[in-house]
Amino acid sequence: MIGSFDLRPPVRPDEVDEVDIRVYLVLDEAESPMLYQVPLAMRKSPVAGAEHTLVAITGGADPRYIYDGPRDPDFAEALLWLILNEETSGMTGGGTVMSQGHSLLAQPDFLIASSRVLSGEQSNTSIIYELTDANGTPVRPVICKLFRALHHGDNPDVVLLSALGSAGSRVVPQSVGYISGRWPDTGQPNGVANGHLAFAQEFLPGVEDAWRVTVRAAEAGLDFTVAARALGEATAEVHEALAVTMGTTTCTPENISGMIGNMRRRLDQAISEVPAIAEHRDAIDSMYSRAASAPWPALQRIHGDLHLGQVLAVPDRGWVLLDFEGEPLRPMSERSVPDVPLRDVAGMLRSFDYVAGAFALAHPGQSAKDWSLACRRAFVDGYSARSGCDLRANRVLLDTFEIDKAIYEAVYEARNRPAWLSIPTDAIGRLAARTTVG
User: Domain 208-433: which topology?
Assistant: First the structure.
């Protein structure tokens, strides 16, 4: 164990000393060491109906019932209060815990009506809070993401959404606050690591992600170009706000060489796992060489893993982009480096192509390629209009980022979803052979 710290919920007279809430940082010293955040709620008596969240019973004659923290209402309440109260406290083992709140929950008299944990997550645990004011009137709900697997370095989701919120952006969820920490780490040059432990933000209930909305439109053959154009505009707005709040930097020859080198390494890895890509190696190498000599835009912070599943369709608000953590297969240190906005554009173009691919798999003999192509063009038009940058003026660079994304997808599908492998491999073939704008 690296360290631990207490959480203290508001004290109620009938629950004094009833619950002890503690968060442990536990190091798994396997071949690839991983630091985990283990939140626990320890009670003197069992909680009726919470048997499925019981972790252990300890103490013999004086037992303690230990529950998974996020599923305990007192833990959930303590977590949110720590964020809003902006505290700094010590951690056993020599670490420090700090919290920073924002203005979304400015009303001091809100109450937590209920809390629940989202199911299906692996590396994080998200708690949904239903809130009311002092009169019992519902107010804006909140979601708090507790990071179970900890990494050294700032989490991009926290940093970027906080920056966008400070810029007044309405195309991302509004930030509530976060908890960060410092803990001993012999693997760091100064012996100390730091990172985010939890992040709370506005929760948007009863909405669908853009993937579902888009697939449904493709199934029905509905014109989706207006919506796709609006999504391009929203993406450009996010890039503009990030450039203003976090700055830009000139893309140097060394930056270009490094990124093209990373692309070539990903290509080599992909060919080792998906040999069919090898037939396109020469064409892809040529594309990379042409891209290396093309003009590159300034580098800045970007979303990093943008696709239709990372966007919500919110009534009376439009598209809302979320989950700014970057590609999950990339190290955390790489996700915080300024990058080329075209990477996000390419990710969304790939996502529209995936809609057509999923449609073809579900409807053998039918095609949604023309529908997808119209959406891709509308997205590019919307982005170009909002940003003032004509994406088609340097098509080889956009194609390069798109084929790099398709190569990433091919490795993912080969490992996890072989039935879908043809979607990225077909795209690799098309992009490698392309000579006209599309």
Answer: Aminoglycoside 3'-phosphotransferase; Chain: A, domain 2 (3.90.1200)
